[in-house]
Amino acid sequence: MTTQAPQFPGAPVVRREARDKVTGTARYAADRTPAGCLYAWTVPATIAAGRVTAVRAVDALAVPGVHSVLTHDNAPRLQEPDDPILAVLQDDRVPHHGMPVALVIADSLEAARTGAGELHIEYERDPHDVTLTEDHLGLYTPEEANGGFPAVRNRGDVERALAASPVQVDATYRMDALHNHPMEPHAATAVWADGHLTVHDSSQGSDKVRGSLAQAFGMDPDHITVVSEHVGGGFGSKGTTRPQGVLAAMAAQHTGHPVKLVFPRAQLAEVVGHRAPTIQRVRLGADLDGVLTAVSHEVVTQTSTVKEFVEQAAVPARVMYASPNSRTGHRVVALDVPSPSWMRAPGEASGMYALESAMDELASALGLDPVELRLRNEPATEPDSGRPFSSRGLAACLRDGAARFGWHDRDPRPAARQEGRWLIGTGVASATYPVLVSRSTASAHAAPDGSLTIRVNATDIGTGARTVLAQIAADALGADPAAVHVDIGSTDLPTASLAGGSSGTASWGWAVHKAAADLAARLAGHTGPLPAEGVTTTADTEQETAEESPYARHAFGAHFAETAVDAVTGEVRVRRLLGVYAAGRILNARTARSQFTGGMVMGIGMALTEGCGIDPVFGDFTAKDLASYHVPVCADTADIQAHWIEEDDRHLNPMGSKGIGEIGIVGTAAAIGNAVRHATGARLRELPLTPDTLLPYLL
Amino acid sequence: MKPFGYARPASTDEAVRLCAAGPGARFLGGGTNLVDLMKLGVETPRILIDVSGLPLDRVTRTADGGLSIGATVRNSDLASHPDVTEDYPALSQALLAGASGQLRNAATTGGNLLQRTRCRYFQDVSKPCNKRLPGSGCPALEGTHRDLAILGHSPECVATNPSDMAVALAALDATVLLVGPEGERAVPLTEFHRLPGENPDQDTVIRPGELITEVVLPPPVPGAASRYRKARDRASFAFALVSVAATLRVAAGRVEHATLAFGGVAHRPWRARRAEAELRDAPATPAAFQHALIAELAEARPLRDNAFKVDLARRLALDVLGELTERQQARTG
Amino acid sequence: MDSLALGADLEPEPVVDEHSTVTLFVNGEETTLTVDHRATVLETLRERFGLTGAKKGCDHGQCGACTVLVDGRRINSCLLLAVTQDGATVTTVEGLADGESLHPVQQAFVERDALQCGFCTPGQICSAVGMLREAADGHPSHVTPPDTETGPVALDADEIRERMSGNLCRCGAYPRIVEAIEDVIE
């Protein structure tokens, strides 16, 4: 096969689609324009609650180039979809602002947009409620939070323990909604041909999308192909099926033409999910040595009237620190708002902002170094479950990070360092993310010419999946990764799980490893030339992934931040951000580093620039475009470093890997907020830390 | 975006004539704001008169030592022009603090002066807005207005002018030259943009069919230093929360000359005349600066969520004046 | 009434030509075509020329994914009407490489892993190419010290970050992008 020495996982192999991406030849969903393609423009509801009473399409249809207008009156009827947000154009109800209420289809994008502007829609408005408050009368305790976690867990007697603690923290932290805003807007190009539906969709998992489409259109999944060859980021927003594919398929069915639909950027926030706003009360009790006696984390959040989604922000407190008494709970209220959903590290990102800020407050109250405080509360087993950890590298991350960052020279006094007009401070926070894995299938094929092909419906949303899967297969086959061809991104391939929950590499890689190892064994036992059809093996990890692990399995990390606060304007700059992670074996150092630092950059946004309220009068998000919703720009970043600690954890998967796509954002905002506290003395408990929030605390 | 016609006149006279020929004509420069607004449905021109190719793309010294800036000079070219970086650094700084490299490569001087507010209600045709549709109301007054005006607003409109460049031009005593159906005229930049009053649909005093041809700067004040600074929500590529442009000359510890303008606080670049009057001949000390700024900002009427801008404007201006004083003293001392 | 836009009045529309013929020199090739006046350069490149490298991330000049070089200058093609560019030279990401040999900026992006999802990458690369030219031409930036000598601007990391801030990257590849551009400068 190859005479080169095999490159084992861990090698910093260049991502294989890099050349396609730097030359512009990598094709995304909207880069497909089949012959005769029409263009669709969605028309969002401009009310927050009520119903559509009339649609006058005559002017829109008179626009040259406009082919048709779909509304709930004439759109194809769908079966009840697997996700209620996909029931678009099915009835007159408007459950939230921005819900698509019409689709204009034309022979050019310009004509479709013009037609949308000429559409006259009348509504009957119902009173709406879009404002989350911690004492909202509609708050209730759900059964479960996102991820299937019980909404409430109690151990011991928190109230009594708190009352008896010599040192206590009782603080409430707030965050507005956050938006995923992948650079690629959600897009789909749909073609019907001979009863077969083909959709190029920007998704994190095309098998999931195919299932949704099959359900909605009442079809056999075999008659649907969904392709997600290259995907321009998702960060959770493409992990569940989004309406673009359904709408494009409806439009294609209605018109008999291929249809391309791209959600306009300003419509995305209201149709692709968001990180729900949270109000989080954290109470900590400790003895004078900083040993926790009580941890209480109570989360208030919102969902929509369409579906229940509960951001599991209190769940990481079940994992992080030892305490004999604990309460973690969630309450939620259904408002007339777009449905929240997954955004990079749902639960962990928001919850660890609150918990790790509170830990910093506790360290201040104790006069104890915040790294040391965390080390003193390392649990022997997972606090909530009592299960042993398969590996727990938090202490190592904290120690290694502290050494690399120069933490030990730190003067703990707040507001004590100034360089020119900049107030300087440093902060630390822990990070955690669970190890998740899902069933996948894969095949491995050796051809008579010696070529090797892996087929698995993995999705590369920017992680470098093709590359690392080639490395995993090459490792099992004793081959050079460059000799392994990898086919991903289509439902024509063996079924696989989605790129979400930092589980992709583990889930797909497990199946790939299994198929490749099987192939290696078959080839080892084979003598003579291979048959003309080659040798193919298939693998299914149903059994392996269904087994409940006796271990608590999580990745851990530590974030260290140095911030500078402009003493005049209150503008905050992150000068240094350093993360150290314990995430099992790192399978490709080059692409792994990018994922870690990328998460940290998003954490900068969460800390400093991102956040979006809802207009109480109109019920819409107040910052819907990229001029008003501030994702970080290059100038918001500076010295950003990611390091990791090699873990040899035998209780994970054949690669020994934990997920790495999300942990970079977990705790980052807390580290930055803690650094701002150290710089200024101001303990702010609301994100983002924009200049207006800091000004009152500056001299 | 509705279909529209397109014309590319060869001269300013032809441009003005074309514009006068029918309703719904709009001059098009770099298009960075107009095309944006057309996509939003806020602007619905029937014909675009592309003036970007007119011979108004030069930066030249005037006879008296000032500077003439053609209306189609691109923001990036203006920011890097040696006469600007040398003699009007605040203008260069303001331009470079605005937008992005790509947008500055497209945006023109004239277009920058005519850009519209970024108030979210103005930009959303599904919502009322007195600026877009007079008489429909101003939801910003009680709505999302953190980024909006603290000075000179009216019950009809609390929008802010988003330009950085215009703030520097206001502090530099620029003049806008216009040509229209009734001939040419010159308008001081500080009078070019309006306060909203009862007709916020009028951003400026420009008359129907008038075209900006030039912006003229007086000669730089000998010995004066100038500076533009901006506070914003992210480190780059964001509109100003508050910005400050100032020129200052200090001699023997006293202010001989001072101009000051604020951005991000009003419907137009806010020339701080009251502060300037207080500063004239005052000692160049933080206390005197503070006094002048408090006098200026006494008339601020912040909205529910933007009171921080009063403090921010004062702090930023105080710091800029202090910086300019230091630089002057370093040079003379 | 769902639209409060101006111009919803009912006076008859004057008859105007809504299309024009323009000649564009795209990646070295001359093409004459008739364009709808509403069509942007971005839409024209993508849907007429089949050059889908330039991406539509926001359609309003707020993200930079559509950046191409027009007459050598980086520009947001989503805000540029094609009709205004008659005679213009347009270079897209597809036109940067010299045959099989990548442009140095492209090569550096590959080696530094200065990309993840890749959607913003064509815009980042075109922007970097234009930005390097601007610095060589002596254009200052927001972070250039005011008393800097005229002439080519030396690009340190802060200069690169400021000058590349018109190109959003949600994957957060910024640190790698800065390194890649530093490699090219060296």
From TrEMBL, chain A:
Question: Which ranges of the sequence are coiled-coil?
Answer: none
- Keywords tagged on the record: Molybdenum, Oxidoreductase
State the SUPFAM superfamilies in the record: CO dehydrogenase molybdoprotein N-domain-like, Molybdenum cofactor-binding domain
Indicate the segments forming the Aldehyde oxidase/xanthine dehydrogenase a/b hammerhead domain, all copies.
23-127
Q: Which InterPro entries match?
A: Ald_Oxase/Xan_DH_a/b (IPR000674), Ald_Oxase/Xan_DH_a/b_sf (IPR036856), Ald_Oxase/xanthine_DH-like (IPR016208), AldOxase/xan_DH_MoCoBD1 (IPR008274), AldOxase/xan_DH_MoCoBD2 (IPR046867), AldOxase/xan_DH_Mopterin-bd_sf (IPR037165)
Chain segments annotated as transmembrane: none
A Pfam family annotated for this UniProt entry: MoCoBD_2
Source domain of life is Bacteria
Name of the molecule in the record: Xanthine dehydrogenase
From TrEMBL, chain B:
Occurrences of domain FAD-binding PCMH-type (ranges) = 1-222
Keyword terms of this UniProt record:
Oxidoreductase
What InterPro entries does the entry give?
A: CO_DH_flav_C, CO_DH_flav_C_dom_sf, Diverse_Substr_Oxidored, FAD-bd_PCMH, FAD-bd_PCMH-like_sf, FAD-bd_PCMH_sub1, FAD-bd_PCMH_sub2, Mopterin_DH_FAD-bd
Tell me if Oxidoreductase is a UniProt keyword of this record: yes
Pfam families (alphabetical): CO_deh_flav_C, FAD_binding_5
Q: Which domain of life is it from?
A: Bacteria
Q: What is this protein called?
A: FAD-binding molybdopterin dehydrogenase
TrEMBL record, chain C:
Output the superkingdom of the source species.
Answer: Bacteria
Q: Does the keyword Repressor apply?
A: no
Q: Which CDD domains match?
A: fer2
Instruction: Look up the signal peptide feature and give its range.
Output: none
Question: Keywords, A to Z?
Answer: Iron, Metal-binding, Oxidoreductase
Record keyword Oxidoreductase present = yes
Name all 2Fe-2S ferredoxin-type domain ranges.
Answer: 20-96
Q: What PROSITE patterns would the database entry show?
A: 2FE2S_FER_1, 2FE2S_FER_2
The record's listing under PANTHER family reads: OXIDOREDUCTASE WITH IRON-SULFUR SUBUNIT, OXIDOREDUCTASE, IRON-SULPHUR BINDING SUBUNIT-RELATED-RELATED
Protein name as it appears in the record: Oxidoreductase
